[in-house]
Amino acid sequence: MKAVCWRGKKDVAVETVPDPKVINGRDAIIKITSTAICGSDLHLYDGYVPTMKAGDILGHEFMGEVVETGKNITNLKVGDRVVIPFTIACGGCFFCKKTLYSACDNSNPNAGMAEKVYGASGAGLFGFSHMMGGYAGGQAEFVRVPFADVGPLKVPSHLTDEQVLFLSDIFPTGYMAAENCAIERGDTVAVWGCGPVGLFAIKSCFLLGAERVLAIDPIAGRRARAELLGAKAINPNEVDVLKWLADATAGRGPDACIDAVGLESHGTGFVPFVDKLKTSVMLATDRPNVLRQAIMACRKGGTVSVPGVYAGMLDKMPLGAAFSKGLTIKMGQTHVQRYLKPLLGRIERGEIDPSFVITHRFKLTDAPAAYDHFLNQQDEFGKVVLKP
Amino acid sequence: MPTTLLTTAIKSVAGQDSKVARATEHLPTTPTNVSSAERWVSLVAGGYLTTCGLTAKGPGLLSMLSGGYLLYRAATGNCPAYQALGVSMSDSTAPKTAIAAGHGTRVQHAVTVLKPAVEVYRYWRDFENLPRFMAHLVDVDTTADGKSHWKAEGPLGLKVEWDAELVSDIPNRVISWRSLPGDDVDTTGSVRFEELPQGRGTEVRVELKYDPPGGKLGTAVASLFGKSPDQQIQEDLRRFKQILEAGEIPSTKGQSAGQR
Ligand SMILES: NC(=O)c1ccc[n+]([C@@H]2O[C@H](COP(=O)([O-])OP(=O)(O)OC[C@H]3O[C@@H](n4cnc5c(N)ncnc54)[C@H](O)[C@@H]3O)[C@@H](O)[C@H]2O)c1
Ligand SMILES: [Zn+2]
Ligand SMILES: [Zn+2]
User: Fold this and answer.
1) Which of A353, B163, B213, B230 is the most buried (most CB within 10 A)?
2) What is the pLDDT of residues B105-115, one digit of tens each?
3) With 90 as the cut, is the pLDDT of residue A354 above it?
4) Which atom in ligand 1 lies closest to the alpha carbon of residue A265?
5) Which tens digit of pLDDT belongs to each residue from A129-162?
6) Segment A36-57 mean pLDDT
7) Is any Cβ of chain B less than 8 angstroms from the Cβ of A248?
8) What is the pLDDT of residue B183?
9) pLDDT tens digit string along A188-244?
10) Residue B140 and residue B128 in contact, taking contact as beta carbons nearer than 8 Å
11) Which band of pLDDT confidence, cut at 50, 70 and 90, is reported for residue B46?
């Protein structure tokens, strides 16, 4: 089959590789009909995520048709149309039982590696480094799905691939980011980053009853998309973000702040410059401009919700401000399985059509160009879907 | 922390695509026996020496070789020299793996399994299940009189066998066993089960001791069990938990990949 393989920093290639096989009894093999490129893939592409190996198959947002099942799979049959969560979860551990699926104890074959780095291992993830399990991803023609009796969601035939594909990650991710804000009627939420995750966060804030969403992104095309959803958006390179948020809320600050940017956030000025210097000499690994601003902006007793990915060490976090204001900070990989059915329900009821984030469609074999555009032409390129 | 920081750091020092950077990708699973402070020293010194060696501005080939060696230690937390000597200076494992002169190797580890004690106990009590999660065991045969025959195999294909008997067996609480005198291996083991309240699972605490008696196989057996036994029991118990909670051991063995 054809698969998109990571070769090195800023280098992906479509290669011909053996078709996946069932390895364990709870596996299923899926023939992929649609897959997407995520902002998280850009962290791999940019070389920010350690323990990638040349030849690793990328992709964690995908859906398709069941073509084979392991001997213990009874919930799926050949021909079923399914969306696959990017978090691999066993369903039987303490964390899965608590619906903290992305913290599953039993799905990362390389848990020992992650334990050395983080003290404990999260769930295995598709196509997301060896430390996170080394599972082959779904930017391919076929994929092997472990614990297929827990993850895959059967989707009704009257919904198109593009309407349900993002249940695999970014719709639940944006939704969980908003849910973590414990939104009350009348709330104002500030959202940094108007990429696909930020857009789903904005939409979800409104679904959950927010009065107002204030969005921040340096890229005009992305701000325009946020405004289409009803947010008010500014360019952090032209406007003093903290002053703008304080003014907009007449001094109180947003009730909640969402960092939908993560470890590669851009910034200008002296501190971001020092961050960049530090990451290049390894005194820090991640660039936390947005997280700093979110903590400084948030109102007393508010919530900072962080769907943006962080991987290592941060410097100069205003923890004193977070403490003195009594903030709640929530973060982590999305517990995707928890949101599949409720969000499918919202799609079926017409409350949201997730295909709104798509800007471009490519053939799977054009993935190298698609990665390049998604990274370098963000003004025009939002969510990119690949078709095998 | 170490893997993230160190691999990235090495890349930034030696270059993303340099041989050194690539080499670090292939070495993540060796046992850790270098303390974190030493790893940082190794990293900094190793990075410096390797860069000097590679750019031929500094002392040349010799520093490149020793620099590469230190980087390897830093990146993997594994020092081949320590390992060959059976020494561990690692902060986390030092007290547990130190081999007291002539007294074999003792390892302890605990894990919480989200199942009632009765189920967890029952699975362990059937010693024939042990090879499913203990990497070095090939086969255990039990006989009706509470005795069992154990077969183990080491990394170099080295085979050892012994007979064992039950020492204590309190259902849902504790099982302990020891090898019978006169065999190649002198070993004892115990496992304790403690059920947590409110359906929070069962704590499983395992203690194993291997005492190579010397003689013809003494050294060989020591190397069989003495190689990072701490990490081995950790991985064994992880598999035990996976079998009980998930019904299978997660794996990517034999999956497809592009050109490596
Ligand atoms: N938690 C999870 O489970 C999960 C799942 C999916 C994605 N993610 C993460 O969410 C983040 C966003 O994903 P995406 O697909 O939307 O990525 P993306 O790269 O398309 O979007 C990021 C956006 O942030 C903007 N940005 C950069 N610096 C900024 C700054 N200083 N202030 C405001 N905006 C800034 C960029 O212009 C861009 O529009 C990534 O970190 C991704 O890894 C997390
Ligand atoms: Zn994603
Ligand atoms: Zn689990």
Assistant:
1) B230
2) 788 999 999 99
3) yes
4) 28
5) 999 999 999 999 999 999 999 999 999 999 999 9
6) 94
7) no
8) 74
9) 999 999 999 999 999 999 999 999 999 999 999 999 999 999 999 999 999 999 999
10) yes
11) very low
Closest by alpha carbon to B97, among B133, A56, A107, B105? B105
Specify the CATH superfamily of domain A2-169+334-387: Medium-chain alcohol dehydrogenases, catalytic domain (3.90.180.10)
| Whole-number Cα distances in Å, A1 to A133, A302, B18, B90, B173 | 22, 49, 30, 45, 52
pLDDT of residue B136: 86
pLDDT exceeds cutoff 60 at A257? yes
Tell me which of A37, A197, A237 to substitute to probe ligand 1's pocket, judged by most ligand atoms within 8 Å of the beta carbon. A197
Locate tokens 């160190």: which residue?
B6
For A174-331, CATH number?
Answer: 3.40.50.720
Question: B-chain residues within 8 Å CB-CB of A109?
Answer: 249-252
Query: Residue B108 forms beta bridges with which residues?
Result: B207
Instruction: List alpha helices for B127-228, DSSP H.
Output: 218-226
Higher model confidence: residue A304 or residue B159?
A304
The pair of structure tokens assigned to A150 is 């827990």
Q: Which residue of B has its CA nearest to A105?
A: B242
Position B133 confidence tier, pLDDT thresholds 50, 70, 90:
very high
Residues of B in contact with A7 (CB under 8 A): 258
Q: In this structure, are residues B161 and B152 in contact, taking their beta carbons and an 8 Å threshold?
A: yes
A88 Cα–ligand 3 center, Å = 8
Nearest CA in chain A to B235: A112
Spacing, Cα A13 to ligand 1 middle (Å): 23
Nearest to B256 among A3, A109, A111 (CB): A3
Residues A25, B231: C-beta atoms closer than 8 Å = no
Q: Residue A282 is nearest to which of B5, B231, B241, comparing CB atoms?
A: B5
Give which of A19, A22, A87, A93 to mutate to test B binding, by max B Cβ within 10 Å. Answer: A93
Among residues B15, B246, B259, the alpha carbon closest in space to that of B115 is found at B246
Lowest-confidence segment of A173-177, A316-320, A383-387 by average pLDDT: A316-320
Per-residue pLDDT, A269: 64
Partners of A143 in beta bridges: A30
Write down the domain spans for chain B: 5-85, 105-246
Ligand 1 in reach of A85 Cβ (< 6 A): no
Is domain B105-246 given the CATH code 3.30.530.20 in the classification? yes
- Going through chain B in order, the beta strands assigned E by DSSP cover 105-113, 137-142, 147-153, 159-170, 174-179, 186-195, 202-211
Residue A140 DSSP label: B
Task: For ligand 1, say whether the CB of A254 is within 6 Å of any of its atoms.
Answer: no
- Residue A317 to chain B, least CA–CA distance (Å): 18
Domain boundaries, chain A: 2-169+334-387, 174-331
Backbone phi and psi for residue A88, each to the nearest 5 degrees, phi listed first: -95, 125
